[in-house]
Amino acid sequence: MEIKTIGVLTSGGDAPGMNAAIRAIVRYGLSCGFRMVGVERGYHGLLRGEFKELTAASVSDLIQRGGTILQTARSKAFATPEGIEQASKLAKEYGLDALIVIGGDGSFRGAHKLSETGINTIGIPGTIDNDISCTEYTIGYDTALNTAMEAVDKIRDTATSHQRCSLIEVMGRNAGYIAVDVALATGAEMVLIPERDKHCPKVELVNRIVEDIRQSQKVGKKHHIVIIAEGVGGSQELAQMIEECTEVETRATVLGHIQRGGSPTIRDRVYAAKMGKMAVDLLKEGKTNRVVVVQNGKLTDVDITEGLEMKKNVSEFDYELVGSLSRNIQNC
User: Fold this and answer.
1) What is the pLDDT of residues 96-108, one digit of tens each?
2) pLDDT tens, 289-322?
3) Which DSSP letter does residue 175 get?
4) What gap in Å lies between CA 329 and CA 319, rounded to an integer?
5) Per DSSP, what are the bridge partners of residue 247?
6) Chain-centre distance of CA 68, in angstroms?
7) 59, 255, 303, 331: least buried by Cβ within 10 Å?
8) Cα 43 to Cα 76: distance, rounded to the nearest angstrom
């Protein structure tokens, strides 16, 4: 089937760089002669026919803005067979021949279902957690890292002044990529991630942190920084328990959704532009049910079904490096 009209939507959690991707998709698509349509509020909007024509002017002054102008929402109704059928029907009635979906694994599962109904679909990975298995990089990750790093640097200043232990909770419900990279970038003494610590008893986590504090005190350290991924949680409770055990003033800070917002970094803007162009090119080539990914440092594409089956783990090297670099080792 010849593709004349391409729709674009953002789904799942918003991520800095989504707007830059929308801009690239629309402007490159228009230059290729396609009619471009925005679907508002993700799959929720697709189910309700919330479509709008997109022009080059409608995506101007966008590249530097965080969030997504198309907005995003989660839709339980879309996850049902009836929802998929209804969404596909509305898309075809509006003349959508293809759909580019910017989001995470859940968004790609929805795109795959639509592909089975005859809608040509391409996925672009956009999530701050960098937890999509088939790609080394996702749009929004670099911005979230920089936001968290700047916050931890500021907290370190006051932690040093007061000789405190600071527990800083970053995002990452099921993945510890943000936590590990932020810990490395800020010189944190310890990192807790869901892959290793989600089901660990609080007492055990406290004992590990307390032991680390005591070892640090022996070599003259006056402050202590622990990065905790959201999926481990309980940072307030842990802080209280640590202070009771050590008599070291301990504070917990939850960075929360500030990591989702803000102007995207140059890395996120560049990847958004490149991935957006490649998504349109794949449709030009007649490909469907694909995800644009980064593998071995290069941009490529994989089948959505295969991509969802791939596995990805936090680097053991990076995780162990956090602890190694935080200690004052006299002899190596």
Assistant:
1) 999 999 999 999 9
2) 999 999 999 999 999 999 999 888 899 999 999 9
3) -
4) 18
5) none
6) 14
7) 331
8) 9
